[in-house]
Amino acid sequence: MLRRLTKILIVLALAAWPHADAAQSPAGSSDPLVAEQSSTSEPLVIVVNRSNPVDDLSLVELRRVFLGNRSHWANGRRITLVMRDPGEPERKTILRDVCGMNEDQLKTHFLHGLFTGEILVSPKILSTPTGVRKFIFNVPGAIGYLRVSDLDDSVKVVRIDELLPDDKGYKLHVQNQAGN
Amino acid sequence: MTRQLNSAFHRRSSYPLPFLDRLLSTASRHSAILLLFFVCSGVAVIGVFVIRDLQAASAEAQKMYIGSVHGLQRIGELQYDAQETRRATLYALTTSDSNLQVEYADQSRNADQRVKDGIAEYGSQAMQPAETALAKRLSSDWEKYLDVRDEVLASILEGSTKEAVSLDLSGGVPAFERVREDLDEVKRLYGEDASRSQANIVASSRRSSFKLFGILSFTFLLSSAAVWAIQRSRMLSRIQLAKLQMEFVASVSHELRTPLAVVSSAADNIADGLIEGKDALRNYGSMLQHQSRSMGHLVDEILLFASTEAGTNRYVLQPLQVSAIIDSIMATTDGLIRKAGFALDRRIEPGLPLVMGDLSGITQCLQNMISNAVKYGGQDRRITLRAFGARSDHGVHREVRISVGDHGIGIDSSELSRIFDPFYRSLRVTSAQIHGSGLGLSLAKRIAESMGGKLSVISELSVGSTFTLHLQIAKGGDMQKATDASRPSSSSRP
């Protein structure tokens, strides 16, 4: 009886999760790799609040953070995950290069985690890079991502596998769509 | 009569403000307008001071008004922005939309920056130690509230609404209450400061009123004094004129009575047959002739003065040789000088140019001067007649001067300015029973001036006096005109 109820809730939650991929991709494909249409790219940086002592994260650690598997920073502050709206190129990059999931898989992952209590808070969704920046500025435990061109001094850039965006071998790059 | 006049003169001399009277008399002689000019100038200067004072008071009031408006505006803005900081924070609680929450957080931060700026401005403009201390306290309390506010905002954005509310109630409300109290204190201090400024303005206004009243009073007193002085100077002039006229009448009566008495007595003697013999009769005739001429001369002098006073006397100016003038004067005064037992010392500079004048006028003028010298020449009985060229007082033109000097009683320096006044006779002269009408010098001065010249005097008491007639030198054009007109050299008199 409990299992059935759980399944019903999961189905309802999945129905409510925004299907941005469908809107973004004319072909209706859910694979982010398929949606790439441009050969140009721009580094995508992981940013945290300036008071956050963390300077460096491994890609594995970053994956744990973005999947909600890690809930607190080393200083005890709760981690607040900041994401862009579904369908945004930056979000696609994170899903592809960090989480290794598509939107549906991420949705399922979080619904499951929240339901089971493994994940405490769902990601905060912000519609603009400015919003992301201001959110992270206001919340000491926040972590998010921005294009290099959207960066300013109000947030702190975190090295990934000890690499900064300008360094060779930096892995996170957002693909610019044609016409962008 | 003379005794009465003398006693009147002595009474006048004992007047407590003789200097003031002399000053007023001088002012009156020149013009009462001069006095009025000084009064007006004084009033104008005072007026400028009053206007400047009023302008300063007005500027002070204006400054206080602007300061009050600005201060109230600053306090109002500070209070509003403090409330706006808190209000925007609380608005973030009302939504779960992260975008909206970020927007409210942004509004709250913008408002708190304005509050910080306002507190800094208040601190920088603080004049009193209490204000400086309050600015520091307000800044500190505001920072404490902002610490709580930041935590509240973070909790709201993280989605922990309960935690945010709890934080706000436990820390935010008391911290903001302290800020509110500080702002009330700012308002109170500002009110006290405004009251002090207002009191200063009131005091300044009162001072201005006192000054204005004082200045107006001073102006009124000054004006009254000026009017009094003018009236008094006119009155003194009239009194002086009346006195002089009385003296003149007394003097003329005396001058006329003496020869008249001689004539009357001689006529009585002749009528009574007391005079016998041709020689005695000739003597009587000669005496009657002299006395009648003396009376005629006096009457002529009075008539001449009357004509110069009325302005009906006109002289025809023409180039004259100085030697001709000297000859003319010698012819008319030789008898007088010799009869009085005086010796005349003539010193005529050779080669003197022609002078412009009327021969009869100049003769009359010099005759009066010599007559004066004979009358007041004292025991030395020596008269010096000099004619010489000199630069005019301004040093621009040359002129010819004819001076008549004596070694007699001289004139007191205090009387030098009055000896040319008509009818004026010195107390010493009247006391010494020296007869005269008081018209001689006045007439001489008027004649000299009507010919474009002037009459000056240098005198020292008990040493002597020298009267000098200044005559203009004839120019080329004048001599040509004189030649063209071919008029006789004698003067004409209306």
Question: Can you characterise this structure?
Answer:
The complex is a heterodimer of chains A (180) and B (494). Chain A has 180 residues and is of the alpha/beta class. Chain A contains 7 helices and 7 strands, in the order αααββαβααβαβββ. In chain A, strands 1, 2, 3, 4, 5, 6 and 7 form a 7-stranded mixed beta sheet that branches. Chain A starts with a helix and ends in a 5-residue tail after the last strand. In chain A, 34% of the residues are buried. Chain B has 494 residues and is α+β, with helices and mostly antiparallel strands. Among the domains of chain B are: 45-217, Four Helix Bundle (Hemerythrin (Met), subunit A) (Up-down Bundle), CATH 1.20.120; 314-485, 2-Layer Sandwich (Heat Shock Protein 90). The relative contact order of chain B is 0.08. Residues 1-15 and 486-494 of chain B have low confidence and may be disordered. Chain A binds chain B through residues 78, 80, 82, 121, 124-128, 131, 134-135, 138-142, and chain B through 98-99, 102, 105-106, 150, 153-154, 157-159.
- Class of secondary structure makeup of chain A: alpha/beta
Please identify the oligomeric state: heterodimer
General shape of chain B? rod-shaped
Q: Quickly give the structural class of chain B.
A: alpha+beta
CATH superfamily of chain A: Periplasmic binding protein-like II
Q: What's the CATH C level of the domain at 45-217 in chain B?
A: Mainly Alpha
Largest sheet composition of chain B: 5 strands, mixed
Order of helices and strands of chain A: HHHEEHEHHEHEEE
Largest sheet of chain A: 7 strands, mixed
Helix content of chain B: over 70%
Give the beta-strand count of chain B.
Answer: 7
